[in-house]
Specification:
The structure holds three protein chains of three kinds. Chain B is α+β, with helices and mostly antiparallel strands. Chain B is 23% helix and 15% strand. The N and C termini of chain C lie far apart (67 Å). Classes of the chains: A alpha+beta, B alpha+beta, C alpha/beta. Chains in contact: A-B, A-C, B-C.
């Protein structure tokens, strides 16, 4: 894949060489962090590639593989956990045949878990891209996924 | 010149020294693993912990990184320290039972049992290889990747690195992988067997070991040549 | 927005804005924080905006931050009467507008508790026992409009502070007794004093908005609902310490908070509260936002600094402390969001006023996120010294089901559990510490009989083994081994020595870890053993989980006498483990059953129960 070098240059300048902000902008643009982009960042900022790679693998919001069209995030923060958040993850693993961190073969769904979205009072929370759904149950989640699958088929 | 009291001995320290620096000058033996004279201080293995403070305000700190301060009181081998060191070694040996360095430390400190399931891993994450690659060899070919229970040391993208010059410094400095310990009882996890002042090197005991540097094995950097070992 | 060039100009503008407020007009304040959004507050807001058309001279609509009563979302407060309506739907909008015009109350939209209707916010039990000096402003402020903040007295504290000497401000903060709200509870005034005494041309301040504790969202509420309060606090702090640049380090998982702070920093700059020669003084100060990237350990001060510097968040040894050598090697003062939020209030109303709230050693209020197995979930701001019982029962309304409450968890993964028989304990730093827990950032999770304390401790241990940076062997290896032992216990594979080994291991991890993550990691395990040892023993000796959580130790069974054969359980079973003909009692095949409990949750006849 070819990386737009001018974009990388602009991002480095805009973020005042703050590495994590630079990586966040690149990921927002490409939907993940392509290997080539990290090599370019290391080159242009004149820092060792291993330092960039360490940072990318240390922080969980960074992703080295492309994400799906629908990113399903299930909150497993304490309040959501004791209200049954794990059951929702189990159901999604069964329905989509992927485990958290993976994307379906047709690139439609990525399943992720997160430690807390800050909506603890109305948990369990399932987030689809930027939409939050509160007080979810395995049944409600199943219906939601079915409707998303229907949408993609239309 | 800050004055501290270490194991009852009062000492005038030079500025910017650590508790471990002072202990070495005074000949007080503190076990270390991730510390190396020529490299930056890491403070990760936690073996060099000592007890500082007095009465209710005592705590354990790593002596290789803790800076001396006027009036500091240090105890390098209190019961609390020894028990903590034993547990830490127990955790490290359970991680990598085949490291001769760890087995020797265990014998020395009197560790008698390991209550955790052995993982049979190689790396103990002391970071010496990363630091020598960065600070002495200036190659920056390897580093820490991931975190927590997924932590590992590797090259970017786990690929052959162009920055790696195959200098072997990482192998040289590694306390865990270069010298394998099979011990008198290979099946058991704790050896407790070969630590003594006149210990033989692996060259003298095992046929399949060779010296990486072409010496007679005095430095202890013996390498197992029975398997075709490649660079990490 | 005109830039204000002196305190005088600010006083004039402030007066003008306050006078512009029409207190006879009705204002519908709609709670619109992230959980409001998740509950549908935006659709309710749109419906209200439609319904109010033609009556804009009498009624205005304001989208504000969260009102705190999350169980009642979407909710509104109608000013000036302070009528509170709960759990709204878009269809309610036309009725609400008409009822305001007619001066009537819609009874089915008010809070009902124990058979009593509560119309006005001050009477509602959830709010009555609180002391809202911080989050009480949220309903009055549109977080995208700095003028709303000024209208309620915003920036008066800063204009007062500009006329004080920096060391006078620090003395005032010391006198107030304010302690760090991030969890450690260190004296804020003393922390500021250390930073102010450092000889350096460059100093920094940081607002720690990482809020990593799962279950805690107090900071999110403040950042979304009243960002100017924190900005003003930081400006005062920077002035007192001698810093010229500040950072707000916000958790990546809070996009709305990032959006609102960005808007507010821009507005503060435009009005002249940030930038060069603030209000005509020689004081320069500006703020930059940095987003976290998903690492709990970056809530620890030295790891946070590493993160801003573009490195991995591995904590550093202290000393040297950040106040002496912090960000980019310069003296840096870091405080939590809630700590910064208290500053303008203390400077405005005085240290004595603040010190009069709370207990001898813990002054002021604390915001808690009251969540879990409790009726009235939400954010509660209470005076220090209130008992746990008052919070859980008077404010929280007790258990939402017939299951008995058995403990609370405070302090998140770094804290511990406190059993029900200790609920008379007052909330203050010392009593919580003595009980084995910590105040923490404010998460308060209520647990009932259906919570397995071993599984709960295992949950936190799993969280921490993933979040540990991995640098020190005691934390990295020790937490993994605690997790292994706890897993064995929950699977009925542990032996008699497991509890003692956990205690010994936990004590060494606490003692030898480099940073607070490791040092506090064993707390959840050690407190659960201290107070619920019988549960551990039941798992180990009897291989039983009485809470019905640990899958290896439970069985679901269908009661043949009650089962109607409706088949709902069979359809919903993900493993096809239920057999039975329509209208005939069904049966669970134990060898196929994965104990997920979906059948139990779906059965409308309570025919499926735990066979413990």
């Amino acid at each position: 894949m070819t990386i737009d070098e001018t974009f990388i240059d602009k991002t480095i300048e805009k973020n005042n060489r703050s590495l994590i902000s630079i990586l966040q902008d690149i990921q927002e643009s490409y939907n993940y962090l392509p290997e080539e982009s990290l090599i370019k960042v290391a080159e242009k900022m004149q820092i060792p590639l291993i330092d960039v790679y360490s940072v990318v693998t240390f922080y969980h919001s960074f992703c080295l593989i492309p994400k799906g069209e629908y990113i399903i995030t299930v909150c497993l923060g304490t309040a959501c956990y004791i209200r049954g958040g794990k059951k929702i993850v189990d159901l999604l693993t069964k329905e989509l045949e992927i485990i958290p961190g993976e994307t379906t073969k047709d690139n439609k769904f990525t399943l992720e878990t997160v430690n807390c979205l800050g909506c603890c009072a109305i948990g369990p929370i399932v987030k689809i891209n930027n939409e939050y759904h509160g007080e979810m149950t395995p049944n409600k989640t199943k219906k939601l996924i079915k409707s998303l699958k229907r949408e993609k088929n239309d | 010149m800050p004055k501290i009291k270490i194991d009852g001995i009062e000492f005038d320290c030079s500025e910017n020294s650590t508790i471990l620096d002072v202990a070495k000058i005074l000949g007080i033996d503190i076990p270390t693993l991730c510390y190396h004279e020529g490299l930056s201080r890491w403070g990760g293995c936690r073996l060099c912990i000592v007890e500082i403070g007095r009465d209710e305000n005592t705590k354990l700190v790593s002596s290789c990184t803790y800076p001396v301060q006027e009036g500091l009181i240090v105890r390098t081998a209190s019961k609390r320290v020894i028990n903590a060191r034993k547990m830490i070694l127990e955790l490290l040996i359970a991680q990598n039972p085949t490291s001769k360095v760890l087995q020797d430390l265990a014998s020395k400190i009197g560790l008698k049992e390991v209550r955790f399931k052995p993982k049979w891993e190689t790396c103990i994450y002391c970071g010496l290889c990363v630091r020598i690659c960065k600070e002495q060899m200036m190659a920056n070919a390897i580093g820490f990747v991931n975190r927590g229970n997924k932590l590992k040391i590797t090259t970017p993208f786990d690929k052959n690195s162009e920055d790696c010059r195959r200098c072997g410094a990482c192998m040289y400095i590694c306390p865990a992988c270069t010298i394998r310990c099979d011990g008198p009882n290979p099946e058991s996890v704790l050896c407790n067997g070969c630590y003594n002042a006149l210990q033989p090197t692996c060259l003298e005991v095992y046929d399949n070991f060779s010296c990486w540097m072409g010496l007679k094995g005095e430095c202890g950097t013996c390498v197992d040549i029975s398997k075709n070992q490649k660079n990490k | 927005m005109t830039k204000l060039l002196s305190i005088n100009e600010f006083d004039k503008i402030s007066k003008k804005i306050t006078e512009r407020q029409d207190f006879n007009k009705h204002i519908i304040s709609i709670s619109s924080g992230t959980c409001g959004h998740a509950s549908g507050s935006i659709k309710v807001a749109e419906a209200l905006k439609q319904a109010v058309k033609g009556y804009e001279d009498k009624i205005s609509i304001k989208l504000t931050g969260c009102h705190g009563y999350c169980a009642a979302e979407p909710n509104i407060i109608i000013f000036p009467q302070k009528v509170f309506y709960k759990n709204l739907k878009p269809e309610d909008a036309p009725n609400i507008i008409q009822s305001i015009l007619k001066g009537e109350i819609i009874e089915n939209l008010v809070i009902k508790e124990n058979g009593i209707n509560y119309t006005h916010i001050d009477e509602i039990p959830f709010y009555k026992y609180q002391k809202n000096i911080l989050i009480g402003d949220n309903p009055l402020i549109d977080p995208k409009n700095i003028e709303d903040y000024i209208a309620i007295g915003g920036y008066k504290a800063f204009s007062k502070a500009l006329c004080m000497r920096p060391n006078e401000i620090i003395e005032e903060i010391k006198k107030s007794g304010l302690r760090g709200r991030g969890g450690a509870g260190f004296s804020t005034g003393i922390k500021w004093e250390v930073a102010s005494k450092q000889k350096s041309d460059t100093k920094y301040i940081i607002c720690n908005a990482d809020e990593g504790d799962p279950g805690a969202y107090m900071d999110r509420n403040l950042l979304e609902g009243n960002p100017q309060l924190i900005i003003e606090g930081m400006i005062i702090g920077a002035y007192a310490i001698g810093a010229n640049k500040g950072w707000i380090y916000v958790r990546d998982e809070y996009p709305l908070a990032v959006k609102n702070i960005t808007i507010n920093i821009k507005q503060a700059r435009e009005m002249g509260f940030l930038g060069k020669n603030i209000l005509g003084s020689s004081f320069d100060f500006d703020i930059q936002i940095t987003r976290g990237a998903g690492a709990f350990v970056c809530g620890e001060e030295t790891a946070l600094i590493q993160s801003i510097e573009g490195k991995i968040g591995d904590p550093r040894q202290r000393p040297p402390y950040p106040a002496q050598m912090g960000l980019f090697g310069k003296p840096t003062n870091i405080n939590n969001v809630e700590t910064w939020a208290n500053i303008p209030k203390i400077i405005d109303k005085g240290a004595d006023w603040y010190a009069n709230i709370g207990t001898k050693t813990s002054k002021g209020t604390k915001i808690f996120s009251l969540v879990g197995k409790v009726k009235n979930t939400g954010l509660v701001e209470v005076p220090m010294g209130i008992t746990i019982k008052d919070i859980v029962y008077n404010i929280g309304g007790g258990s939402p089901t017939d299951r008995k409450i058995k403990a609370i968890q405070t302090g998140g993964p770094s804290g511990g559990c406190i059993p029900e028989d200790l609920f008379n304990l007052p909330i203050d730093y010392e009593s919580l510490k003595q009980a084995g827990s910590i105040m923490g950032s404010g998460g308060m999770i209520v647990l009932d009989e259906d919570t397995c304390m071993v599984d709960f401790a295992r949950y936190f241990t799993n969280f921490l083994q993933n979040e540990s940076c991995g640098k020190c062997s005691s934390c990295r290896e020790g937490i993994q081994r605690m997790f292994e032992i706890l897993t064995d216990i929950t699977e009925g594979k542990a032996n008699d020595t497991s509890i003692e080994l956990l205690e010994e291991l936990g004590s060494v991890i606490k003692d030898t870890s480099l940073c607070a993550l490791g040092q506090t990691a064993p707390n959840s395990v050690l407190t659960s053993i201290r107070y619920f040892r019988n549960e551990y023993i039941a798992h180990i000796k009897d291989k039983k989980c009485f809470a019905g959580v640990c899958r290896a130790l439970i069985r679901y069974k269908i009661d043949k006498e009650i089962c109607t054969g409706c088949g709902v359980c069979k359809i919903n079973c993900p493993e096809g483990a239920i057999v039975g003909e329509l209208k005939q009692p069904h049966l669970i095949l134990q060898d196929k059953c994965i104990k997920c409990g979906i059948c139990h949750d779906n059965c409308n006849f309570n025919a499926i129960n735990l066979d413990v």
